[in-house]
Design a protein that fits this description.
Layout: E1 10-13, E2 70-73, H1 86-106, H2 110-120, H3 124-129, H4 139-153, H5 169-175, H6 199-202, H7 214-227, H8 230-236, H9 240-253, H10 257-267, H11 276-283, H12 288-291, H13 295-302, E3 305-310, H14 311-323, H15 327-336, E4 337-342, H16 349-355, H17 392-397, H18 409-415, H19 434-448, E5 461-466, E6 473-478, E7 484-489, E8 494-498, E9 504-507, H20 510-513, H21 523-526, E10 528-534, E11 536-539, E12 546-551, E13 557-562, E14 566-571, E15 576-582, E16 588-593, E17 599-604, E18 608-613, E19 621-624, E20 630-635, E21 641-646, E22 650-655, E23 661-666, E24 672-677, E25 683-688, E26 693-697, E27 702-707, E28 714-719, E29 725-730, E30 734-739, H22 740-744, H23 751-756, E31 769-774, E32 782-785, E33 791-796
Helix pairs in contact: 1-2, 1-4, 8-14, 9-10, 9-15
Family: Belongs to the WD repeat TAF5 family.
Biased composition (Low complexity): 51-71, 165-176
Biased composition (Basic and acidic residues): 407-418
Length: 800
């Protein structure tokens, strides 16, 4: 398998694995194997989110704390990088280290400097003197100061950068400063303690004003905003929540506990309802000691809260704060908020409400500007035989008879190249085996019998209810051809059922296999052991509840992810575990195979998603950027992108080729639990605990629809095979069908809308609701459209 990278040497952050890693080399922005990662120079406040860093054992809630080591990574199978003198590499590393230490000293971050110097075993004189041992002509000193200027340039605004291990800025200073290949040499490794050193993060909350005046400052701003013109009031009201949080944290940090309590009680009721969960966490932080190591605190401090405001509203705010000489609030705005200013009319309350609600505010407009190849890859040309149903059985087992090209709409449609599709060889994909070609032929035959769905022709729904599932059903998946169904359970088992008359059989033992004639036509049938035939197989191996399950497209493998931190690959020929993939340190909430097989993605409590290949024991890419658990993962139909939904209430789209975050979607008011792409690859549907289903245009990076109706978490979403209907399943015990064609027609995606995010959602989504189907008392965990457009739904009956 070709490597997922260009042939170039990269600077990467890596852990020492057990034994030689056989990984594909990373590109900028992704991890080199387990624990790998290099960062682009965004600083901690960037919305790009392409900072890749692996979790390390015992870290606090997923804050990236890699052990940093600069090394050269050569592509698999490439010629070795010619090494220059090892001294050059060592001196380069030393210069980098000295530059970082100087920068920390100048920024008055003594504790961080101390820790870094202790680990690097450098004497204080070496830092103070800046005389890095170079070639004796001052080159070392110049290099150190050049590096220092680059490091300083990467610092985000007036805020002091975080030390390595607390966010991304420190890591960016180390790995982002190298602009070319580094010769492998003796490396100074910079290790960081397990517990994040939050003192530098918190130092931004140094005493800046009279604690008794905080209520007056906030009340004054509140009065000004409420008395401003209607067009500005909605936009400026976005300031209430981030200012409230930062002012409260400032009071707590400076140990004004009574003032903090009074401030919280007076103003917390003014905040929007969708921030209630965050405020509950905030209310528990009443002492300075509570703030150290608190995830919410660190998230809020290290990622600037993003507000999108028109230029007129911003000028109004600035003028007011300067007139009142309200430096306290102005400092917070400058230091802790990122105001994304746009030219044009201010947005209405409805437009703002549709887009806000995530842990770090809205996405920056820049985050959704990069080009995304959302088109489908060209299908391989497969000649479809004209034979009828009486020969289908024969074709399924043996080789198909003489084929004639079949001129039909399905064949011709896939021959054209989609203008928005990525290049066919953009990422290496596995070649089609003969069995895959046969399966595609069967699929095309099924397609000719597919029911054309629409408002006047709704699909039938077949519901699989898991009865007596006292072991707690936690995950379900169905094969593409709808022949197998798998369930993951809280008792750490995975159970596989056949839903066709064909029973599940294992391969014979080795001794029996040696007796079989390998040249016979029905060899695949002969290797199966009839004595093992049954409708159900139970797979044992996990040591915690199984939260994710995914069948491979060829139905030979099954993936499962668990609370035990592993993803397991099971063979459906022998019904045994082939591999346990260990990379996550915490529960893995979801896993999914690529539509082409070979690759798969996983996401978990450590806040990162990982891309794997079945034949590599370590991840190929690490997608880091979410501020909370990654709850669900999905591959784009062309396999070049991965979507992740998180408890930070955002959805991100990641480029598999380079590990970059290319889209950030905000708008949900609760953790996201379901994702699905439309069959044409152009749209994404997302469902969350807020009961809303949001529709996104991937190419333009815009929200284009909102479907309201569910009263509980939306656990499953699926488009019909032709993309005309969207089915949603929820914990409210219903399946709802929506008119996807009507939802996506006449979209307003002109330049102004794209530039400013002035989205206009239809007032009433009930016009798009085609039907609601209740179960007696069964939450809907999974939905699946068969190749003929019958809906299969699954869930565990929960007695009242």
């Amino acid at each position: 398998m070709a490597a997922l990278a260009e042939e170039q040497t990269e600077v990467a952050v890596k852990l020492e694995p057990e034994g030689p890693p056989t990984l594909l080399p990373p590109q900028a922005g992704d991890g080199a194997g387990e624990g790998g990662g290099s960062t682009t120079n965004n600083g901690p406040n960037s919305g790009g989110g392409n900072v890749a860093a692996s979790s390390s054992a015992g870290r606090d809630g997923g804050t990236p704390k890699p052990s940093v080591a600069v090394s050269a990574v050569a592509p698999a199978g490439a010629a070795p990088v010619p090494a220059t003198a090892p001294e050059a590499g060592a001196s380069h590393d030393r210069q980098t280290l000295l530059a970082v230490l100087q920068f920390l000293r100048q920024s008055n971050l003594r504790e961080a400097e101390e820790a870094l110097r202790r680990e690097a075993r450098l004497l204080e004189e070496a830092v103070a003197g800046t005389g890095a041992p170079g070639d004796g002509d001052g080159a070392g000193t110049e290099a150190a100061s050049a590096l220092l200027s680059r490091v300083t340039a990467s610092a985000p605004g007036p805020a002091a950068p975080d030390p390595p291990g607390t966010g991304a800025s420190g890591a960016a200073a180390v790995s982002g400063s190298a602009t070319g290949p580094v010769a492998p040499g003796k490396v100074g490794s910079v290790a960081v303690e397990d517990q994040p050193d939050v003192s530098a993060v918190l130092s931004a909350y140094n005493q800046q004003g009279d604690p008794t005046m905080y209520e007056e400052y906030y009340s004054g701003l509140k009065h000004f905003i409420e008395c401003s013109l209607d067009c500005h009031r909605a936009e400026l009201s976005q300031l209430f929540y981030p200012l409230f949080v930062h002012m409260y944290l400032e009071l707590v940090y400076n140990q004004h506990e009574n003032e903090a309590k009074s401030f919280f009680e007076k103003f917390h009721g003014d905040q929007e309802c969708y921030y209630q969960d965050d405020l509950r966490v905030l209310s528990s932080l009443t002492k300075k000691e509570h703030m150290k190591g608190n995830e919410t605190m660190l998230d809020f401090r290290t990622s600037k809260f993003v507000l999108r405001i028109s230029r007129d509203s911003y000028q109004l705010l600035k003028r007011h704060l300067q007139e009142k000489q309200n430096n306290q609030i102005w400092n917070i705005v400058q230091e802790h908020l990122y105001i994304d200013i746009f030219d044009g009319m201010p947005r209405s309350k409805q437009q703002i409400d549709a887009m806000v609600g995530s842990l770090a505010g809205e996405a920056k407009r820049e985050a959704n500007k990069s080009k995304v190849f959302f088109g489908l890859l060209k299908e391989p040309e497969i000649e479809v035989p004209l034979d009828d149903e009486d020969e289908e059985g024969e074709n399924e087992e043996g080789k198909p008879k003489k084929k004639k090209p079949k001129k039909d709409s399905i064949g011709s449609k896939s021959k054209k190249q989609d203008p928005n599709a990525p290049p066919q060889n953009r990422i290496p994909l596995p070649e089609l085996k003969d069995s895959d070609k046969l399966d595609k032929i069967m699929n095309m035959k099924e397609t000719t019998k597919r029911v054309r769905l629409g408002p006047d022709c709704l699909p039938s729904i077949c519901f699989y209810t898991f009865l007596n599932a006292y072991q707690g059903l936690t995950a379900v998946d169905v094969t593409d051809d709808s022949s197998l169904i798998a369930g993951g359970f809280a008792d750490s088992t995975v159970r596989v059922w056949s839903v066709t008359p064909k029973k599940l059989r294992s391969v014979k033992q080795a001794a029996d296999l040696s007796l079989i004639d390998k040249e016979s036509d029905d060899v695949l049938e002969r290797i199966m052991d009839e004595k093992t035939a049954s409708e159900l197989k139970i797979l044992y191996g996990h040591s915690g509840p199984v939260y994710g399950a995914s069948f491979s497209p060829d139905r030979n493998y099954l993936l499962s992810s668990s609370e035990d931190g592993t993803v397991r690959l099971w063979s459906l020929q022998t019904f045994t575990c082939l591999v346990g993939y260990k990379g996550h340190n915490y529960p893995v909430w979801d896993t999914q195979f690529s539509p082409y097989g070979y690759y798969f993605v996983s996401g978990g409590h450590d806040r990162v998603a990982r891309l794997w290949a079945t034949d590599h024991y370590q991840p190929l890419r690490i997608f880091a950027g979410h501020l909370a658990d990654v709850n669900c993962t999905r591959f784009h139909p062309n396999s070049n992108y991965v979507a992740t939904g998180s408890a930070d209430r955002t959805v991100r789209l990641w480029d598999v080729l380079n590990g970059n975050c290319v889209r950030i979607f905000t708008g949900h008011k609760g953790p996201i639990h379901s994702l699905t792409f439309s069959p044409n690859g152009r749209f994404l549907a997302t469902g969350a605990t807020d009961g809303r289903v949001l529709l996104w245009d991937i190419g333009h990076g815009l929200m284009v629809g909102e479907l309201k109706g569910h009263t509980d978490t939306v656990c499953s979403l699926r488009f019909s095979r032709d993309g005309e209907i969207l089915a949603s399943g929820s914990m409210d015990n219903t399946v709802r069908l929506w008119d996807a064609v009507k939802a996506f027609e006449d979209l307003e995606t002109d330049d102004f809308t794209t530039a400013t995010g002035h989205i206009n959602l239809p007032e009433n989504s009930q016009e798009l609701l085609l039907g609601t189907y209740m179960t007696k008392s069964t939450p809907v965990v999974h939905l699946h459209f068969t190749r003929r457009n019958l809906v299969l739904a699954a869930g565990a009956y929960s007695p009242q």
